[in-house]
Design goal:
The chain has 5 helices and 13 strands. With about 250 residues, the protein is an alpha+beta fold. It has 2 domains: about 1-65, no CATH class; about 70-250, Sandwich (Jelly Rolls), CATH 2.60.120.
């Protein structure tokens, strides 16, 4: 609704700015000829007002995009899987399945790819629903578009918050920002989650252009979009932050 409201404002400003200058001048400046400025001054003033309103119109249009966020909610097990990563069962996981390498299955091998269209140039933030039982089972690598995972202690390492039950954790980069921003251009991209430590479990992924969006599990609609390779949904960002990335980070 907020977006519709701003679109209506923008259209009103456009209409006002592009009225017939003579009509606008007559309405505003020539109602009382004894007290108004000359006709030539009125024309200049009208052009100035038209310019200002046009600027406001353009700024309003640009602000409309900021009122629209992208959300992509993914089931981890629906990606393209490379062994030893595999689909495993857990009744407490979303839809009863998750991705991981069982304890003793080996570290630094296997991955899962998620390929789909990102609908606009933006900064994207990623959160994952994970279980990280201990310090030996609490990390992945995260890359885009064929980038190698890099050094075992490099910037692509996502050190997850430890916890024995499913919880949301924002993707960070070792020695980088926490959470880590990903600058992506409009178009198709491949997100790869590499297995770094066996025993680390990944249930869902949540990607958004709104840093303050509360991560959520995929709905039936999200799953349908994911299977079709169209994972993105447009939503209105929350202006009152009841659940922020920072709050989620501090919870676990």
């Amino acid at each position: 609704m907020r977006k519709i409201f701003f679109i209506l404002i923008a259209l009103c400003l456009w209409g006002i700015a592009h009225q017939n200058p003579k009509r606008l001048r007559n309405r505003v400046f020539l109602q009382n000829s004894a007290s108004m400025c000359s006709e030539s001054e009125g024309i200049l003033m009208t052009k100035f007002v038209s310019f200002i309103l046009t600027v406001f119109f353009m700024l309003t249009l640009f602000s409309i995009q900021s009122l629209t966020a992208i959300e992509i909610a993914l089931e981890a097990e629906l990606g393209e899987i490379q062994a030893p990563a595999q689909v495993l069962k857990d009744k407490d996981a979303s839809r009863g399945e998750y991705i991981g390498v069982p304890e003793g299955g080996g570290s630094h091998n296997g991955w899962v790819d998620y390929e789909f269209e990102y609908p606009m140039n933006s900064t994207y933030w990623i959160a994952g629903k994970v279980i990280a039982a201990d310090g030996g089972s609490d990390s992945f690598y995260v890359t885009f578009d064929g980038e190698d995972k890099g050094d075992v202690n490099g910037t692509n390492v996502w050190d997850t918050q430890q916890g024995p039950t499913w919880h949301w954790d924002m993707v960070m980069g070792r020695n980088l920002a926490d959470p880590r921003p990903f600058e992506l251009k409009k178009g198709k991209h491949i997100l790869r989650i590499w297995m770094r430590e066996d025993g680390t479990k990944l249930d869902c992924l949540f990607i958004s252009t709104d840093r303050n969006a509360a991560p959520r599990e995929p709905t039936d609609k999200d799953v349908k979009l994911q299977k079709a390779g169209k994972g993105a949904r447009y939503v209105e960002p929350k202006l009152k932050l009841t659940s922020t990335w920072g709050a989620i980070k501090n919870t676990y």
